[in-house]
Amino acid sequence: NVFDTIIISVQVIEQIMTAVMTTETEFLMNNFSATRVVRTLKLIRLLRIARVVNVFGELRIIIVSMVSSLKSLFWTMVLLMFMIYTVSIYLTQMVTERRNELDPGSDDVQPLDKYFGSLGTTMLSMFMAITAGVDWSEICNPLMEQISPAMAPVFATYIAFSVLAMLNVVTGVFVESVLKSRGTERDLFMVSNARELFQSLEGGMHANMSWETFESKLDAPQMQTFLKAIDVDPSEARGLFTLLDLDGSGEVSADEFLNG
Length: 260
Hints:
Order of helices and strands: HHHHHHHHHHEHHHEH
Strand content: under 5%
């Protein structure tokens, strides 16, 4: 298929370039871009693992679910960074005003510089506070001691909203996305198995499967996968065949097999 053709083509190109560079050592020393190309081609060969992944259904579903959740992950990070950026601007401005009032060499300035020395530092501190990178009380204490005790409820509100509200909602979105992706991938996997099963028959996808043929295919990997996916024991195959035979003709077509 197309995937195998691409892998083989990459392998051939890699072998050719390796042979050329081996015979032209001087060219290799003067042009390192060729070396980078070969290394890239070797990395592409790792795509072969996709062929192995297809053998393990559960692993394949997990990988596909993770990849499909990348879009949700991107927008989650955008929302999270926007919230952190907004809070960090407010805190950095307050801390900067307070630092201007303190002696630069004072010990009171060091905790403020550590967590709120710049906008980037403040954003990092806010991120660590909600991801257990650092105990958020260590970040809040300098604000309470050097600015105002009223900063405690403000900071606590930020933590509560981030952890109890936003992150829980984000978790729900991720779970829903993974479940939806799992269902779609499961359907596609079953369709692929059914197609392989019928293509092994005379007539391919246009063939009709009698009970005798259906029974003879019970040990086929595609049929075993299909039965496992719908949670049916092979001993119940006769009843399943009757259910799939929607028109009562005694034969099951590809459409009946999939729609059933």
